[in-house]
TrEMBL record:
Pfam families: MinC_C (PF03775), MinC_N (PF05209). The keyword Cell division applies. Residues 115-137 are annotated as: Disordered. This is Probable septum site-determining protein MinC. It comes from the Bacteria. Belongs to the MinC family. Cell division inhibitor that blocks the formation of polar Z ring septums. Rapidly oscillates between the poles of the cell to destabilize FtsZ filaments that have formed before they mature into polar Z rings. Prevents FtsZ polymerization. GO terms for biological process: cell morphogenesis; division septum assembly; regulation of cell division; regulation of cell septum assembly. The gene is minC. It comes from Aerosticca soli.
Length: 252
């Protein structure tokens, strides 16, 4: 089994579709995966305990065998998360999911490999065409949708999702509340819960908060969990944005 060069972490954990996180495995080491995920669940149980996750095997040049994948799924379960299937990938990933009886969480499955055209024996063989790239998701501006507004407090346990648009909250976001947008998020009040912008992968999305006290902020899957808010951010107006793979938080 071949994989790309190893890094320090066993996996990448990112938010994707609303309510589902993706665990992209970097090493087929079930024990190490358990230790890393269990540490993350312990650090932020409100966020990760019993979270629905998909297992992403796209880091591997050759897919692990079924026994190894079973062990990885059990590691996710033992850490306190709930695996719901495999992430989309090539036809080999789909075949593996079928053999194991697992759901395949796919958005642009057909874009990864071209269909093989039918030809009869008298038709000369041709080199297969390169797969067409997946169409880009429309931006909030391209979709022509205005921002979604919420007036008043977002209470603990409540979730608000702005699909294909920005979200503007005029009020507080309580501890244990969750606000999500495919575009940017603007909170004109105190953010004590969780805010996730760019939920479908928009890396240009931003989060603006007038009173920053968040449990978690995330943009396009890149997140930061706060056990204690840094003194230079607590209670201040803050902007969150991505710089490459790094999530930056600065005072306004």
């Amino acid at each position: 089994m071949n994989a790309r060069p190893e890094t320090g972490e066993v996996c990448d954990l990112r938010f994707g579709q609303v309510g589902i996180a993706s665990v992209r495995v970097r090493r087929a080491d079930a024990a190490a995966l358990y230790e890393e995920l269990e540490r993350r669940v312990r650090a932020a149980p409100q966020l990760f305990a019993r979270a629905a996750v998909v297992l992403d095997l796209s880091h591997f040049l050759d897919l692990p065998d079924e026994g190894t994948v079973d062990a990885l799924l059990e590691a996710v379960r033992s850490a306190g998360m709930l695996p719901v299937g495999l992430a989309y990938g090539t036809s080999a990933t789909e075949a593996l999911a079928r053999r194991m009886g697992l759901p395949l969480i796919a958005k642009f499955r057909a874009a990864y490999e071209p269909a093989q055209p039918h030809r009869d024996d008298n038709t000369p063989a041709q080199a297969p065409a390169a797969p067409a790239p997946a169409p880009p998701a429309p931006s909030v501006m391209e979709a022509g949708l205005g921002a979604q507004y919420h007036d008043g407090t977002v209470r603990s346990g409540q979730q608000i999702y702005a699909r294909d648009r920005d979200l503007v909250v005029v009020g507080a976001v309580a501890n244990g509340a969750e606000i999500i947008a495919d575009g940017s998020i603007h909170v004109y009040g105190s953010l004590r819960g969780r805010a996730m912008a760019g939920a479908q992968g928009d890396t240009a999305a931003r989060i603006h908060v007038s009173d920053f006290r968040a449990e978690l902020v995330a943009i396009a899957g890149h997140y930061r969990v706060f056990e204690q808010i840094p003194e230079d951010l607590a209670g201040h107006a803050v902007q969150c944005r991505l710089d490459g793979e790094k999530l930056l938080l600065t005072r306004l």
